[in-house]
Structure formats: structure tokens, C-alpha cells
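Page 47, continued from p. 46.
Same chain as before, 485 aa.
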Amino acid sequence: MTSLDTERMELVRATRRAEQLLVPAAFVTALGNNVQLIAGALLMIRSDRTMLAVGLLFVAVAAPQAVLSPIFGRLADRYDRRRLWIGCDLASAVLALALPVWLASGGAKGPGIYAANFALAVVAALFFPVSNALIKERVRPSQVRRFNANYEMATQAGMLLSATVGGLLVQRLGAVPLLFFNAGTFAVSAALVAGVGRRSAVTGAETSVAAGATPAIIPTTASTTASTTAPTAALTAGQPASSRVPLGRLIVLYAQGSVVVTVFNALLPKLVLGEWERGAALFGIVDAIGSLGFLAATAFYKAAGRRFNDLPIAVFGFLACNVALVLQPLFGPVGLGLGVALGAFTYGTARIASRSLVMTSVDEAHAGRAFGLANGAGLAATVVAMLGIAELVDRSDSRWGFAALAGLSAVAAVAAGVLLRGPLSHSRDGVRHSDDREQHHGAIGAGIRSRMGNHERRRRAAGGVLPVPAPAPDSCGVPDAGVAG
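Result:
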């Protein structure tokens, strides 16, 4: 076995380990982030039964990320992403512990909740681009779509289950034990990411060309930063290269998903606790049902992704989710549960597809910046949508809030679909033509190598009985490099 084979085997083992550990790390991180937020929302809705009080809490979380994520995305492209992820988790654990200590010492509830969630949001502004850039760095290009399905399912399931955990624990034990549980989730995530190990090798340019080219293995040291590594030029499942697809249009499609899930998480406690006056347990059960929808979405995307491109999957998925949003508050708790399951299924499918579009359309060296911009744009839009919908709901009821959210999402999905259809279509054509040329050149090269091999075998056979003739001079007096055969 050659050293290249050994390096290739080590790379495969390292990437598989990363793929196995990053998914549960994403789950517990999402669970922890949203447990803190849900606990705060439940406490605020009990003390001030307005949508605006809850909406301001979500704005306090979204605003710092909207401003800082594009800036922190550049840091994710300059420094060790694994260490940054671990640092974010440890900082979040410390901040999460600060709130129950503050409440137990008799601190004011409202200011403490806003301050703790604001501080966690600052850390999350770095975590989002860092985590996505680490995925781009460690996951094999050929596995990006499959991994994204699992990763997005884990993230969204963690967000939804946070409502279940939050609702049940707040109702039975109160908010303080829940907040201690939240700090523990960040410690678990840090341990999982530490198990990924240091970066020892990267793929330079793994292509999907039928000529069967072997991916380059480029050994690196632990201090190698993402900005000094070769960008990944791979296209998976016919997805476009970043130079051919406008990133801003992809961000419109991807980022509007952040608006949907964040505003929905603010509307749900207002509907269940504020208007229906049901317990926190129903609030948690409804979101737990939604988790089943995300599990179904993961399986569906893996099947649909083999037959359809990501753009139509994302657009039609978001539009179907908009229909579910309108129906959710109209038919009581049973209708809400069914609507949330349908909405989670369609939203999850669309979110996975839009994430795959962004992930496969940026190179590794700029992945942090791209996802930082996507997170910032999505949360900036969330702030505007949250304040507007909160005002609408407080003047009417939650049904209008769900309808308004569905309308905003539908406009963004249709606009992005129309704007991206041309660039993505041209990019796929370019990829197809490039693949055809590579196959053609590969066939020519194979034919030349075959003829050269036959020629060499004839020369060696003749050399067994005849001396090899000296090269004859050509017309310019220079010995010919050819071999008589």
C-alpha cells in the first residue's frame, strides 16, 4: 500500500467520523439554544400576555446576529473552525448558567431574560457561520446533499423538541431547572465536536466526471487555515458552481426559512397560551408532533433528491408550507397538531434543498462568509417581520399573524425561484457540457495510451531478435525521437 493510499484511507475515516459526530452536535446545540429562548418566551407570555412582549424577546435574539453574522463569517474563514465551534459552545454554557443564577438570587425577571438571550445571540452570530463552514470543510462533496438532509433534520428537530422539553419542564419543575439543562446541552455539543479531531487532510478538487479521476489528497497541518486551502471545486448532483449562480438570490431563498421558523415560534405561544389559554404541555406536544414531520422530510428529500433538482423542491416545499401555516390556527388543537406536522414536513424538505443549494454553490474558503451573510440577511428580515406581525396580532388575533407570515414567505419563495431558474439552468448546462468534454478527452487519452502501449510491446518483442535502430535524423538534422516499429 502506497503512502497516497494510506492518506486516502485516513481522509475517508476522518470525514466519516466528522459526518457522524456533527449531526448530533447540531441537534443538542439547537435544542439548547431554543430551550433558553422558549423558556424565556413562556415566562414573558405569563407576565405580559401580548405578542409584542414575546416578539421583542425574539428581536433581542435576532438583532445581534443580523448585524454580527456577516462580520463573524470572515473570522470563520480565517481561524480554526473546530476550535471556534467548541469555544462557542463553552461560552454559551457559561452564559446559560448565568440566567438561573440571576433569577435564584432575586434578580428582575424581564431584564435578566432579555440580557441572557441577547448575550447568547452574540455567540450564535459566530456559531452559525462557523458550524456551516466546518461542515463544508469536513464533509465529502459527494455526500453533501445526504448530510444536509440529516443535519437540517437534526437542527430543526432540536428546535421543535425544545418546545416540548421547555413546555413540560416549565409546567412541572419551573424555569430554573430547564435553564440548567440548557447549559448541559452546550457542554455535550462541545464534547462531540472535540471528538471530530483536528484537520489533517483535505480534498483539493474531487470531481464528478465520468473519466474516473482520483481526488487529490493534500496533507495539511493543524494550523492550516481555511483561507490557505484550495477551494473545493466539486459539484454534487449537478449543482452549480458559485461563480455561475448569484449568491444573493440563493440567500433570499434560504434566509426566508429563518423568518418562517422564528416568527412561527413566537406566534405559537401567543396562540396556545395567550388566546386558547391552554397549558404549556399542549404547546410542547404540538411541537413534538412537528418533529415527526421533519423526520419524514429527511426521508422524502433523500428520495426526491434523486429525481429532482433542489430549486423546485425548495420553492414548492415553501409554498406548501405557506398553505399549512394559514390552516394551522383555524381548527383547534387537533387541527393545529396536524397542521404543524404538515408544515414541518414541507418546510423541512424545502429547507434542506435550499441549504444544499447554498452549500454546493460556495467554495470552502468562503463558506463562513456566505453563511454569515445568509444568517444576517435572514435575521434582519426576521426583525422587520416580527415587529410588523406582532403589531398586527395584538390589534387582531393570531390567525392574521399566521396568514401574514405565509404571504411574506410565498412572495420570497416565488421571487427567488423565478430569479434563480435561469442561472441554475445555464449552470447545469455548463456542467453537462464540461462533463461531455472531459469524457471525450478522457476517451481520446485512453486511446492514445492504448496505442502507445501496443507500440511499446511490439518494440520490446522486436528487440528480442533485432537490435534497436538508432534514431534517424529528421529534415532539420535533429535525431527523431520516434521509435521505428
